[in-house]
Structures are given as structure tokens and as C-alpha cells.
Amino acid sequence: MVADDAALFRAGIARLLADAGFDVTAEVGDADALLAAVERDPPDAVVVDIRMPPTHTAEGLEAARVLAARHPEVGVLVLSAHVEPHYAMRLLESGATGTGYLLKERVTDPGELTDAVRRVAAGGVVIDPGVVSQLVGRRRVRNPLDALSEREREVLAVMAEGRSNQAICERLFLSPKTVEAYVHNVFTKLDLHQAADANRRVLAVLAYLRA
After folding, report:
1. What keywords appear on the UniProt entry (predicted)?
2. Model pTM score
């Protein structure tokens, strides 16, 4: 299901998803209509704009919070026109599984959009690289990230997007053993606990970056 008050953008998203093989079961213009549609026929995932009527502030986030409580099996991908890390954090706190925050500019790459939808539908966490970049690059009086090498920072950034070790291999052209070593170094240097669950791993990294 797709929810966005801009009719042309909404139709464009629906068309991209349909062309990629998704069955788009509803297209709506506000959060209330989305929640009602999900109640009638829960989908595998919804794509929702962060700002919709009536206030155009964070209706999409509120809808994500409600869906996490009522329909935790439904993946939620929130789209935003701007990099807003605080909203991404609020989204993750509303439900750690099947949740994503992606910039609207990514929609110009159909592969990026469809990959994100598939990942949240499967229960994964998706965070836009722009949000991660802002968190990693944030200046602090004492920045523990200074202990990381340049390559370890790159691995940390991809990890925080919700990517698996295999995806890190493909993104950075590294072998699986090399990635495992870098991930181990990152967790050790940042004093984070390794987590078997991919979502918990992402949440731990983002919580650290937000601190």
C-alpha cells in the first residue's frame, strides 16, 4: 500500500512498485485512510510519506507507530524529503523490525526503492545512507569514532544502514573474512556488544551514533 498526499508522486511510486512485480493493493492520500485500508486487508508492507494532512508534520511516523502496535507483521517504509536523523530514531523506537526510513530522492533509483520495500517486508531495518552519514560525521568534543580506521568507518556506515555482512562485502569489494574482521574491530573499539540478530546490531550501532 502507498500513502502520500501528492497524487502524482503516489501514482509514480505505485507504478514503480507494480513494474517491479509488487501487487499494490491501495493508494491513499492520508494516514487515516492508510490505517483503515490496512485494517481491511493487511499488506506485506506500506510505503508512507512522513508529512501528510492535516498538519503535514509527522503523520507518517504516527501511522508507523500505530501499525507497529496493531500489525507488527506489516513492514513500514517511511519516505522523507529531508535528512532528519531525529525522525529516523523516533521511527526505530516505534518498532525495531520491519521498519525503514528512506529519502524521497532515492526513489529515482527503482532498485533502491524495491530493495528497501522487500527488506522491511521481510522484517529488516532500513536506514537511508544520508542519515547514517550525518550521524557518523557529527562533530563531538570527544569523538570515539576517531579510534576507527577509515575502512572501519566505511564498514560501520554500511552496517548502520541495515546491511548484512554479505552486503558490506559487495558494497566495499571485500572478502567475507575481511568484513568479519572489520566488524569485530568496530564493535571492540566502540565497546558495543556483538548481536546475532541483524536488527539488534543496527539498533546498537545507531544508538551509539546518536549518543
Report:
1. DNA-binding, Phosphoprotein, Transcription, Transcription regulation
2. 0.76
